[in-house]
Amino acid sequence: MRRLLPALLALPALLGLTGCAAAAPATVSPAGCGPATAVVTDTDVAPIGADPGSALPATVTSADGSSVTVTDASRILPVNLYGSIAEIVFSLGLGDRVIGRDTSTTFSAASGLPVVTPAGHDLSAEAILRLNPSVVIADESIGPPEVLAQLRRAGIPVVLVDDEQSLAAIPRNIRAIAAALGVPEAGERLVARVDAELAAARRTAPAGTAPPRVAFLYVRGTAGVYLIGGRGAGSDEMIRAIGATDAGTELGLSRFRPLTSEGLINAAPDVILVMTEGLASVDGVDGLLALPGVGQTPAGRHRRIVDMDDGLLLTFGARTGRAIQALAEAVYRSCG
């Protein structure tokens, strides 16, 4: 399975995109356009209720096909590349049982927990064993696999959930995590809340307007990485959820591809979406507009740059409904 961000950072910058056809012209009026930040007012995790208590033992099928029995959920270690597993565990009301975190888990309720990925996104067996977890919940976005195997040999139940980054995967992962921790009823309540928030977020897009073309750019100026997202990148799901068109998908791209001026100009985005830290890494909006091709797009000409917190945009966890609503408001606010 993919390990998304490390794979992105390993790609060279500004390699050529070929075979790009010219895209349709912009469909949004330039009046009143400008940069905007998608802001979720309350970024912390809201538990579905008090700790419901766990009905254990629970035997579940891990995403790798193995059968895992959990007999103790008093010391939970939720880890993955996106922070979504910890977000779900806290939302189930089990935050007081969590003993550690990955570097992608940045919401305030978890910020004081010890980090078990000291070298970036790789798990440290030593750091995990020191915490003595009773169960580890992870997915195949994080590793290395040898560490997870070492934990199992040490007698720690390791339950893997699906690492698919999509809206459809959220309820599946909530149910899988809730089942492993012996709180299936809390899982159903959380699924109902997330589904309601997602439905409300999808209604944020104004009716009767042509959908804007949005291009997601993954930029890390300090590392020389400049990529454009397409089908399966995760950003495409968020863009479609706000009633917009993913420009990279329309161009025929899949996952992430190196950015070129020709490819971006052909994509013709009305809006460019970036992560907040990525925008800062290129010295803000003006630095982004200085990248090849960005200033020649409709989005660049009208400065329609929308940024969103790195810990929210592609997490696909229990706060995704709120994230979609904030993204829709920022995209449609960026051009009044």
From TrEMBL:
Domain Fe/B12 periplasmic-binding: 77-335
Source species, domain of life: Bacteria
Keyword Signal: yes
Keyword Signal applies: yes
Pfam (any one): Peripla_BP_2
Swiss-Prot/TrEMBL keywords: Signal
Alphabetized PANTHER family for the sequence: HEMIN-BINDING PERIPLASMIC PROTEIN HMUT (PTHR30535:SF4), VITAMIN B12-BINDING PROTEIN (PTHR30535)
Full protein name: ABC transporter substrate-binding protein
Organism: Micromonospora radicis
